[in-house]
Design brief:
Helix content is 41%, strand content 13%. The protein is α/β, with parallel strands linked by helices and 386 residues long. Helix 2 packs across helix 13, helix 8 crosses helix 13 and helix 10 runs antiparallel to helix 12. The structure holds zinc ion (ZN). The site of zinc ion has 4 residues, from loops.
Amino acid sequence: MLTLFADNLTRFPGMIHSTINLSAFPTDYAGAVEKWSHEVDRLSAVQKSFPLGDLPNNNLIDHPLITQTAWLGKLNAPKVLVLIAGTHGIEGFAGSAVQIDFLMRLKEQQWSWGEDIAALLIHALTPWGYAWYRRCDENGVDLNRNFVDFSQLPVNPGFTDLQPYLLGSDQQLRETAFTAYKKQYGREQFELAVSGGQYIDPLAPFYGGVQPNHGHRVIKSLFEQYQLARRQLAVIDVHTGLGPYGYGEVISDHPLGGDGFKTAKNWYGAAVTVPEQGSSSSVPKNGLLDYAWHRIMQGNSCFITLEFGTLGTASLFEVLLNDHGFWAKTPMQQLKQIRTDAGWQQQWQTVREAMLAHFCPADPIWRESVIFRSRQVLQQALTGLS
Ligand SMILES: [Zn+2]
């Protein structure tokens, strides 16, 4: 147990400060499911499971691959706080910690809200990526680029320019190409080219897919099952890997000046950043999960990405490109055989450790910051809903 700012405790409301227990961070996917389920079981919640289905190598992981949900509070509550973890598989390590901390504190009665509010927790939305320490799903699809009109896929010409340099092992060649592109078009255009979303290369990062994937279908199913379009919503989707180290940036991708935009500003204040205005660590992107929620939201609702920064954008791209380069050589069908190979194991360990170091640093200060900031933002959301 670590105590945060113990000397200043009296200056702040007890809701956010108090001890921060870093055991909320899981050690792996199976451990996350176990911890999360244990905490949900201690509360009175309606639970649902969405199995990923049969994959050739499901049995390589210690736990069946599933997305789970928990509904806390009255089923007919007109207002709902929605927490999402693992939209990008591996980013679920921090997303789970936020939810587990929330559940533990709920059990300790350190959170409270009116009877007109319920909470919906969505855990491990991309379970395959979570279990295999990847950002994407089992088909290389980035769920957060998957909410597009599939009859009219977006085109990203910058990606096509850079594609030949992305997965090659010649790092020097890649850096030269990146530097030249940035010099010609600027940093923002470069980031759009690489990470804005692409629909042509399933092996490269930020691939949005050609049909709704598992997480997409789960979200649409939850819209129906809980009739979410009829309720007032505060959605918080936890991500990691972009922005300043340890800072939890509240990002709104709502259309400028619209109701969601205004609600986000009202609830979360001046800290809200907006990619479209250039004030965010993120550039505007294709196919975000946000857009599906925006479409069902009525007044006084908003969706925010709570993005915890780590090691910077250059590290993000480098680590992800190495991960994709490695997995491009590992066909899913052969994963079971390859996995017993000592050379493959060693390479996987290197890739996996680099992914974890980028998306969920072991540094207790970083982890403390995640818990502390998430409590602030959750409190803002609940106050907003109230
Ligand atoms: Zn993410």
